[in-house]
Amino acid sequence: MKATVHVMLKNGVLDPQGEAVRHALGASGFDGVKGVRQGKVIELDLADGTTEAQVAEMCEKLLANTVIESYRIDMS
Amino acid sequence: MKAAVIVFPGSNCDRDLAVAFRAAGADVEMVWHKDTDLPADVDIVGVPGGFSFGDYLRCGAIAANAPVIGALKRHAERGGYVLGVCNGFQVLTETGLLPGALLRNAGLKYICKTVGLRVETSQSAYTEGYNAGDVIDIPIAHHDGNYFADADTLDALEGEDRIAFRYTDNPNGSQRDIAGILSPNRRVLGLMPHPERAADAGHGGTDGQALFRALAGQLTSA
């Protein structure tokens, strides 16, 4: 089974990389891009029976730094 | 003073830190990240700069889960001293020994230059060789040194006099110009600038020497 973890900087935490991408989009002629936030996607290949709670524990312990990041788990 | 310096794969300031501790009179042992114990009777543990584990996932995140970190936490809980420089500061925030986090520099660039730091408190074993308000020149070399914490944490750091150093000209977007902070017991210091790179006349500056000398003075008489 697989799980996908999306990690994003929390709202209110400045994302300078996202800002740089937004500027670059504007410079490339794409008008109307009001904001860009950049995060990461982590795909986990898991033993059958792994629970979402266990994945959440992985997020809390290592995959995300909850001081600055939020995470979302998709189990499939 | 007995010091230990932790070495992770990708550490690159470990020997510089050991040289600075030795120059101040310390016995220094290097400790590999897979060790589960620190040398007996160690007074201070240095967590060096570098790019531990290639900065994979987040700077310091993998190192913060290395086997030696359990021993480091026990050392800190016993009231032991811990000095984290640059990547070492990132590791200390990831372990939770210090609050906050270090984000990508606001200007997105890796910055390598000497900056002015204002000593904000002389009330610690690290800073008592300076006077509060002194401005010292110390090199920085980082891509992720933009200190972030929520407003309550920042207020607490200020209220408890736990901000050790501030940038005189903020190079990286750090909140409230913070360059280095202390733990509640004032024995754990994390800072992005490199005092060990300004600790010998050959470095081009010696403003970092007072930090190591003050530490040696404190920990030898203790």
| Assigned CATH class of chain A | Alpha Beta
Radius of gyration of chain B: 16 Å
CATH architecture of chain A: 2-Layer Sandwich
Q: Report the principal-axis shape of chain B.
A: globular
> What is the mean pLDDT of chain B?
97
Strand order of the largest sheet of chain A: 2-1-3
Distance between the termini of chain B: 9 Å
Average pLDDT, all residues of chain A:
95
In total, how many beta strands of chain A?
3
CATH fold-level name of chain B: Rossmann fold
- Secondary-structure-derived class of chain A: alpha+beta
Give the fraction of residues assigned to helices of chain A. Answer: 25-40%
> By CATH's scheme, which homologous superfamily of chain B applies?
Class I glutamine amidotransferase (GATase) domain
Work out the count of structural domains of chain B: 1
Task: Explain what you see.
The complex is a heterodimer of chains A (76) and B (222). With 76 residues, chain A is an alpha+beta fold. Chain A is built from 2 helices and 3 strands. Chain A has one domain (2-75): 2-Layer Sandwich (Mth169, Chain: A). A 3-stranded antiparallel beta sheet of chain A has the order 2-1-3, with helices on one face. Chain A is elongated, with a radius of gyration of 16 Å. The mean pLDDT of chain A is 95. Chain B is of the alpha/beta class and 222 residues long. Chain B has a single domain (2-221), classed as Rossmann fold (3-Layer(aba) Sandwich). Chain B is 23% helix and 26% strand. Chain A binds chain B through residues 9, 13-14, 16-17, 20, 61-63, 65, 67-68, and chain B through 57-58, 61-62, 65, 93-94, 99-101, 103-108, 146, 148-149, 173.
